[in-house]
Design brief:
Chain A is mainly β. Helices cover about 0% and strands about 50% of the residues of chain A. The chains are: A mainly beta, B mainly beta.
């Protein structure tokens, strides 16, 4: 079945450092890919998405490119802030009739220090 | 304000005592679902519903029930909770592929 694997965490960075969180996936067909963010005590929020190969999703300074050849969707940000501290989830959707179902990775905890 | 509301936020119960976690959305979404979040496992789908009176199992449905009598409500029922159902639960609704609106979560502890 479909699966998503994220890099092991937690990740600890200083403010203004460069961030990469790796994500690879296994899926049949052509899934859509997503990054969700979860701030402390809250539900998940959609951060960005890409629906086909070579698409780049971006939002709030975060970017991720859908790489079909390496089955990857790594999250990057050039300069993190303390307010980016959260848990980040990579996810895929197989689409079709179950359009609301996501398969999630295990999550990566990011802590940014001043 | 568009939102998914689930209650309660925290719940402590004992093995075998039936409980219900409520979920309501005000966005007129047809698709609703329940997930559980466990450390190291991410979120896993329990049940989903594509419309009123239409529900189906997700990846981890054992020990759970749901109902969808109205479009806005999608309660999660644990008829005989067990300690392995201790988890953080999220309700979500979706208007389109992959875009989920999540509630704030229910932390359940089964003793």
């Amino acid at each position: 079945g479909d699966s998503v694997t994220q890099m092991e965490g937690p990740v600890t960075l200083s403010e203004e450092a460069f961030l990469t969180i790796n994500c690879t996936y296994t899926a049949t067909g052509y899934p859509s890919l997503f990054w969700y963010v979860q701030y402390p005590g809250e539900g998940l929020q959609l951060l960005l998405k890409a629906t086909k190969a070579d698409d780049k999703g971006s939002n709030k300074g975060f970017e991720a490119t859908y790489r079909k050849e390496t089955t990857s969707f790594h999250l990057e940000k050039g300069s993190v802030q303390v307010s980016d501290s959260a848990v980040y989830f990579c996810a895929l959707s197989a689409g079709g009739t179950s359009y609301g179902k996501l398969t999630f990775g295990q999550g990566t905890i990011l802590t940014v220090h001043p | 304000e568009a939102q998914v509301t689930q209650n309660p936020r925290y719940l402590i119960t004992v093995t075998g005592k039936k409980l219900t976690v409520t979920c309501s959305q005000n966005m007129n979404h047809e698709y609703m679902s329940w997930y559980r979040q466990d450390p190291g496992l991410g979120l896993r789908q329990i049940y989903y519903s594509m419309n009123v009176e239409v529900t189906d199992k997700g990846d981890v449905p054992e020990g759970y029930k749901v109902s969808r009598k109205e479009k806005r409500n999608f309660p999660l029922i644990l008829e005989s909770p067990s300690p392995n159902q201790t988890s953080l639960y999220f309700c979500a609704s979706s208007p389109t592929e992959g875009k989920l609106f999540f509630g704030s979560g229910t932390q359940l502890s089964v003793l």
